[in-house]
Design a protein that fits this description.
The chain has 211 residues and is an all-alpha fold. The chain has helices at 2-26, 30-35, 39-52, 57-69, 73-84, 91-103, 107-121, 128-141, 145-158, 163-175, 179-192, 197-206.
């Protein structure tokens, strides 16, 4: 009798452990969906998680990343702003809010977010390269080409394999009449991607100035 009771208890424990493992394995993983490019599905999962726990910062972060990828910039701005009322110091929210505002053409607000990201995350932030790239684009739009040069230089220093970023650095240098270094930047872009159109045309514009 005692043996049977132990056997029953053991079986019940195994059942609950197995059920828990199955439940965890069967639960949709929003971050995995995001990394696999299933942005709509990731959005749906995050929204479901936030219904259960409206203060879940991790759900907010993945939701905002997914909204950006799905080009739902206004929705991302709203969600990131709401999330920052819960935690205003999370650098991931600061960065993604900067991106949303950039795409919504709110450039001054976007720049403020990116500068705040750099101040809080430092040069080792996981998105520092992207932040410097966006800052460079804003400076280009503002006609601040030397500032753009500095930002794009920091961007390619962080992520040296981005051909388009090198091309944008070349353009910033071209706009300051730094023809030699503009060509060097364009050449670097073409080493990475020989078909990079902006680098091809930019290089052609600069070469006559070196002769």
């Amino acid at each position: 009798m005692f043996f049977n009771v132990k056997k029953i208890v053991f079986s019940v424990c195994i059942f609950f452990v197995s059920f828990q493992i199955f439940s965890q394995a069967g639960k949709p993983d929003a971050l995995r969906l995001y990394n696999e490019g299933h942005f709509k599905e990731a959005i749906a999962v995050c929204e479901g998680e936030l219904e259960v726990n409206p203060r879940n910062i991790e759900s907010y972060v993945v939701l905002c990343w997914s909204l950006i990828k799905n080009k739902q910039y206004w929705e991302c701005e709203q969600k990131a702003t709401a999330a920052r009322k819960i935690n205003s110091y999370d650098v991931r929210l600061i960065e993604v809010l900067g991106e949303a505002k950039f795409y919504l053409q709110k450039y001054d607000e976007s720049m403020a977010m990116f500068q705040r990201y750099i101040a809080n995350a430092g040069e080792n932030g996981s998105r520092v390269g992207e932040v410097y790239y966006f800052m460079g684009e804003i400076y280009i739009l503002q006609g601040k080409f030397q500032h753009a040069d500095i930002s794009f230089s920091a961007a390619v220093r962080n992520s040296p394999q981005r051909a388009y970023w090198w091309s944008r650095l070349g353009y910033a240098k071209e706009k300051t009449s730094d023809w030699k270094n503009a060509v060097i930047a364009y050449d670097q872009a073409l080493k990475i991607d020989a078909t990079q159109y902006d680098a091809v045309t930019g290089r052609k514009r600069c070469l006559p100035h070196l002769q």
